Amino acid sequence: MKKKGKVLFITPVLPDANGGGREKRAHQWMTLLSEENTVELFLISPHPAAGGKAEKLVLRYRKWQRWVEWGKALLSFVVRPVKGAFVLFWMPLRPEHKEFLQRRFQDKTYDKILAFRLYTSDFALYVQQLTQTRLLELDLDDIESSTFEKIARVLFEGGRYKEAFQRYMSAVQFKLMEQERLPQCKRIYICSREDQRLVNERFPGAEVQVFPNRMFGVIQPLPKSTANKKVLFVGSLNHYPNEEAVTWFVQQVLRPLRRNDPDWVFQVVGYEASEQLQSFLRREKGVQFLGAIPSLEAAYAEAGMVVAPLHAGGGTKLKVIEAMWYGRPVIATSESVYGLELVPEVHYLPAETAEEHMQQCVKLATSPALYHRLVAQAGALVQEKFSYGAHAAPQIWVADKKTNTA
Hints:
By secondary structure, this protein is an alpha/beta fold.
């Protein structure tokens, strides 16, 4: 019997197949790595309550320290990377963290360390040094510097200048971190071929593997809803690109649709919406704001279609895969399907402008044949490329195992 390897998985979130995007991806990693390895999970979080009783390193900082770290980040505009500079609300590796890691990892040995997300990489590099681990791999998921640049642009266009500046500063710092840390990792994982090409262009010597975002289990297509004109949006509403997309859809698409036909309804599902967004959605006619709900299946069961009108973001959007998973046709912008390699008019209906969104909504609501064709073709693709578990397509799972458990 082949001896199992020992892998340390350093992550900012607990793996959860039913959680958000990061939690789902972490679960996919744990599932894959555990097939041929003994996996030890180590959680790092700025939130003391994160992970419940799971062992973790909590990144504590006082308010004055935040301003000091922002000052360091500002210096990165004009000088080389400032060691230990701050990235949004993630604290860099500090002496007290090193002491904790020394106690935690003394006398430990691993065959491989996998750091999940760029901002855990300085901790992973230090643990690699402590444990003399030969292999250090990094899962970027997406390119953080590019993602934050896009979010900064949308915030600026929305008049939220302070937040736009913060995101832009973080984009600069992430770019410096990428330059410093990616060359130190044996292998880098990214969620799409498009991002793989970008990383290869920036770092020609890096070994970059595509590790797509996927859903766990077997797809669960729901029966067609009788509410043909109920449009659903699902997303974390504390993430500005989602907030902007929802607001834009209500103002630019839903209102004109309802002027022609008041039967149109827009249902919004997501946690941590701001008071301002909640107030806006609850005042708006034709909007059903559900907030956070225990199960998404009921919302998808009622919906006639799903929209993803994002204008910024990063990586591949699990909200698109999830909608197809539940058997709902999707109308999406190019940003929303970035990296998924979907074919427009085959797997989803493309729309960029308000007029295009309205046209696609009406088309889906009035054409059962189109509805069923999109659902069938998207469902087949999701089952083949974007699902994992015991049933997963062998050629995909085996290919991953060859590159990811080496």
